[in-house]
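User: My collaborator sent over this chain with a note saying "see what the structure looks like." That's all I know about it. Can you take a look?
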Amino acid sequence: MKNIALIFAGGTGQRMNTQTKPKQFLELHGKPIIVYTLNHFENHPEIDGILIVCVENWIDELKKMIKLYTFEKIMKIVSGGDGADMSIYNGLKSLSEICKQDDIILIHDGVRPLINKDLISANIAKVKKYGNAITVEAARESIVRLCENERVIDVPPRESMYTAKAPQSFKFGDIWPLYQRAQKEGVRTTDSAHLLSIYNVEMHTVESTPNNIKITAPADYYIYRALYEAMENQQILGI
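Assistant: Without extra context I'll predict from the sequence alone. Here is the result:
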């Protein structure tokens, strides 16, 4: 059994309002965001390999970064698709050539760098025990559900509401057939948890690390920078 990280970085970052580069290649202190993300998996002793799904015309640049930062666990880079679900599909399709049914696949956003070793370990342990692991965070505000005309249908109790984060982890033999089925049926999904929900698959959760944000819009980048620098200062100054 192997543990493989599937890092999808196939987006073009349209919501970042940047014309120069995709969001995953924006830099903090001279290092691209995706490098911070990859480091967590590269340095984790239980991770055996990493597959990256990347914007096609940035693959050459990514290869340069891999060489520069001496990543050794990168198995392959494949082109992204039209949306996160298709990028994940492309990654899983490539892994189907080498993965066994019981191999554990940790699916993670390239622009979600504020995770840690313990969260990766918890995902792996939960998949070994239950077959899947969805990283979640308790909702901090009330969740309002609307109907088509923007009328409020209900407001579920906040204590039972969580937001899905990443990693989202599965046995390869379970997740790949679901993505194949969705592709065949023309089903589009926002993430793997959404996919499992559509097909009524029982899911199990792992508590997220604090501030496990996804860098999607400009404000996210500045929040990430502030959080990263605060954590660095805590380590250096002991505050």
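A starting point for your reply to your collaborator: The longest helix spans residues 218-237.
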